[in-house]
Amino acid sequence: MTKNSTEKLVEDASTPYRNEQAKRKFFEHLKGGEGFAGDSVTKFAEAVGQWQQFSKNDDFINFDKSRAAEFCVWLNTRETKTKAGTLSLTTQYHYLRRLKRFFMWLSEQPEYRKIRKTDVDFLRLSKKDARIATAGTTKAMPTFEEVQKIITSIHPQNEIDQRDRAILSLALITGMRISAISTLKMKNFDRDNKLIDQNPGDGVLTKNSKKIMTTFFPIGWTDPEKHFTEWYDYMKKKGAEPNHPIFPSTLRGFSSKSDYSKALVSDEGWSSSSSARKIFEKRCKNAGVPYYHPHSFRHLIVNYLSKARLTEEEKKAISMNLGHENVGTTFGSYGYGNMSSIDAVKIVQKLTVTPTNGQNLIITPEDKAALERILKQM
Fold this sequence. Notes:
Elements: H1 3-33, H2 38-55, H3 65-77, H4 89-107, H5 117-120, H6 127-135, H7 144-152, H8 159-174, H9 178-181, E1 189-190, E2 195-198, E3 212-214, H10 223-238, E4 250-252, E5 260-265, H11 274-287, H12 294-306, H13 312-321, H14 327-335, H15 341-350, H16 365-377
Helix pairs in contact: 1-2, 2-4, 4-6, 7-8, 8-10, 8-12, 12-14, 13-14
């Protein structure tokens, strides 16, 4: 074996380690340097994993524009287990933007300066496909009446019924994310002031670990607030301490660890929010309503509040209660931005414009003279 071939074998053997080392540094940067949540970092890992699958785990330093272009073709044509058999444009778009961010970061590291940023730009969809990918789809959102039906269909016979009704009620009147709801502790709720402190320091899982102060939104229906506070009072009377979860997991372990009670809750929290999500699925089905995932309740409350004549100050307050820094995010992505083309047509058809529903335009001789002077200067 020649010296060059031996060196090549050593280099090939070290490639996986170098790649994993680079990935670990990047993920640490996302989490520690930019404050990304664990779920978000996982999505970046999935995107990088797509590249490694395509390149057969080739050294990242061999990245160039031709390989980037080849990857885009591979991503668009590779088979999947979905009904369509291929990745959707939206999925491709997100894989590419995350992978682009990874290689951009990598190009700034001393040992990867060989990678050109202009080559990284080739990780992209065509403008046409990008427009389709970012146009989004109509979000499934329940009507207010459907949520009322779901909540009122629960007639508590035991702790689990009471807990489930309180979870659905809190989701409606606060728009909180299910990850935060499922990790709330007793001390996070100030009953007297109706304040919920979504505090990551207490273990509450919020997006990007942001501390959020929340209160109940006025929706013209008082039952949900009553259902939640009654459950909170019940837990307190039962002996729940400040660090105990407001919404404990279902009691299990009667005959085996997989054997769950049909009536009682434990004194422990959930290991993940997936169990809390299943509550929405179960209660929708029981009420004879199509399944709406927890996040759709968040869209509903913003859409509902959007119909009021809100001041800019009120819009900002609603946005902050939901944990958004930008009002445009709240009323763009969640409120008016969720309007379908049919909804827009119906609203326009209902518009009535008359000379008297605004200010009457009366042109005085002075106005006419001023207008003539302006026109002469144009």
